[in-house]
Task: inverse folding
């Protein structure tokens, strides 16, 4: 009986793992192989193995300085994460107690979660447009600037602009996750804190935050990975430019593939990203040690 | 004091609302403006003569209705496919007793969660080219089903975990086969879970850009994001038509979110791996 049950389980899992193998595992493996080949769309008939040449080319690339791209990636992740978290947490705290129309309110403030990152990037590109953009218009009306600023064409402002768009996009995720966690904090605990004379700020730091700490840790760590892998907004707004000001690892991989048709170097970026992701995932598992909970 | 507190709170809530809504408001207004007004500076925040010209152009002159239909069919078929497949794999992973294979298989599922979809662009393109499946809506549907399987399975498993095994055992002693038990006992109890899996997959597939750009090339096979991408690659972006296209691209997932918000939030807090 036990054995038969086991066989049944494997049988009904077969479609899932067959598709995963064909469309995920195998391509990932193949991608890792391509990273060591000269593989461009222009010459698909000859794809010789060239050792580490793709990686060397990436690191020595003068037009796309590798360390600038790395630094941009760190800034992109760090700044997005801090603001998404703080603002998302603030929103969750504001929404914690029921108020009239909370259901409708949450639909309206959470909706960015469901939107296409690419389309949202285009919307923000229009908002930040250097000639006819709304932000320029508002700043001029307020008398803060005299001439429109090329937010997306000026390297000094480009990173800030894509970051604002990304922060906007990520607030709902944190708000949703933290709101759910906040609602699990027992009311008695808060009451006890009140009776002991703790003010709202004290209650936040001594009761609420310690209580939802596991959610805070796991959402931030997972979100880090997700932001690193989220090129859509940058791709739509600047494509990584101007002069690499907003280029991160993910956008550079896409540029190599879609613009330069260099699948070898694109895949080499993929291998670098995967290596970073893996080290990060191990670090994550180590920090949260969810290995047991997995089952 | 109390009044002041609730006023501050209301004000902050209002600020979050304005911040969340203004980009959407702005693109909607832009899409209703005529050619002259879009490029007027200082900006007009309300169109003087609202017009549907941009939408008319989008659906009559460009092939946007084809792209829209492609996206809709691919997203629906792929999310239903992913849902059906992961109901079974999720059930198996939930009910398996031997710990070691279960751990390995779950790890294999979680592993795919850290792989971003755009990572698959060139290898999938190369292998699908070999079997003549590039530039094919069927090819990309398969890719999308596979892209959603892991997350859907993890979600399905966590929903099934909450249903007591005793229920199935009772049904099976009465002569039901396992497959019958799944359909008669388990699925009816997890309908909200199924809704969560479906809406999640639909939103993710509808929004996917990079695989589609890589795999689909001919005009009548493009999905909506690919079409938007081709609008901006052409010299001189027409913001009127583009903004109408963006509005149309955003609507379906907004509608899904409006109806399925409860389930999506449940799925997010449950699976919590992909944001």
Result:
């Amino acid at each position: 009986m036990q054995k038969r049950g086991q066989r049944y389980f494997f049988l009904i899992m077969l479609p899932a793992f067959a598709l995963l193998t064909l469309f995920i595992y195998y391509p990932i493996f193949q991608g890792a192989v391509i990273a060591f080949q000269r593989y461009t769309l222009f010459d698909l008939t000859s794809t010789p193995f060239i050792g580490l040449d793709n990686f060397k080319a990436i690191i020595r690339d003068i037009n796309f300085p590798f360390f600038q791209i790395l630094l941009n990636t760190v800034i992109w992740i760090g700044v997005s994460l801090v603001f998404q978290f703080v603002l998302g947490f603030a929103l969750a705290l504001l929404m914690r107690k029921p108020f009239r129309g909370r259901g409708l309110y949450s639909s309206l403030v959470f909706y960015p979660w469901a939107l296409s990152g690419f389309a949202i990037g285009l919307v923000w590109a229009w908002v930040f447009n250097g000639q006819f953009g709304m932000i320029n218009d508002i700043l001029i009306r307020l008398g803060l600037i005299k001439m429109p600023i090329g937010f997306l064409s000026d390297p000094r402002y480009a990173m800030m602009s894509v970051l604002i768009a990304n922060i906007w996009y990520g607030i709902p995720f944190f708000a949703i996750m933290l709101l759910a966690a906040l609602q699990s904090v027992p009311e008695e605990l808060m009451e006890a804190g009140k009776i002991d004379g703790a003010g709202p700020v004290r209650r936040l730091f001594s009761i609420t935050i310690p209580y939802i700490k596991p959610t805070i840790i796991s959402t931030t760590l997972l979100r880090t990975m997700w932001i690193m892998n989220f090129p859509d907004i940058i791709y739509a707004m600047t494509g990584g430019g101007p002069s690499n000001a907003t280029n991160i690892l993910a956008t550079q991989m896409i540029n190599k593939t879609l613009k330069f048709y260099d699948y070898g170097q694109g895949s080499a970026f993929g291998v670098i990203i995967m290596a970073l992701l893996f080290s990060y995932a191990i670090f994550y598992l180590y920090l949260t040690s969810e290995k047991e909970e997995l089952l | 004091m109390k009044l002041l507190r609730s006023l501050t709170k209301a004000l902050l809530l209002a600020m979050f609302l304005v911040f969340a809504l203004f980009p959407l408001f702005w693109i909607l207004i832009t899409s209703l403006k005529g050619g002259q007004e879009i490029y007027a500076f200082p900006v007009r925040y309300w169109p003087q003569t609202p017009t549907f010209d941009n939408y008319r152009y989008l659906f009559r002159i460009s092939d946007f209705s084809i792209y829209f239909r492609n996206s809709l069919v691919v997203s629906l078929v792929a999310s239903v496919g992913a849902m059906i497949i992961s109901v079974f794999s999720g059930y198996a992973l939930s009910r398996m007793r031997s710990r070691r294979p279960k751990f390995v298989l779950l790890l294999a599922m979680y592993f795919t969660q850290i792989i971003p979809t755009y990572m698959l662009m060139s290898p999938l393109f190369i292998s699908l080219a070999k079997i003549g499946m590039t530039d094919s809506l069927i090819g990309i549907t398969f890719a999308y089903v596979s892209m959603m399987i892991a997350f859907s399975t993890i979600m399905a498993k966590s929903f099934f975990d909450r249903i007591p095994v005793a229920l199935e055992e009772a049904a099976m002693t009465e002569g039901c086969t396992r497959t019958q038990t799944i359909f008669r006992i388990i699925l009816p109890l997890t309908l909200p879970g199924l809704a969560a899996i479906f809406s999640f997959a639909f939103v993710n597939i509808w929004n996917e850009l990079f695989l589609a750009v890589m795999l689909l090339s001919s005009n009548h096979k493009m999905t909506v994001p690919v079409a938007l991408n081709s609008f901006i690659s052409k010299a001189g972006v027409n913001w009127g038509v583009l903004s109408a296209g963006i509005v149309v691209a955003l609507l379906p997932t907004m509608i899904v979110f409006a109806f399925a918000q409860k389930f999506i939030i449940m799925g997010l807090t449950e699976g919590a791996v992909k944001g």
Observations:
- The two ends of chain B are 39 Å apart (CA to CA).
- Chain B has 13 helices and no strands.
- Residues 239-271 of chain B form the longest helix (33 residues).
- Residues 33 and 48 of chain B are 8 Å apart (CA to CA).
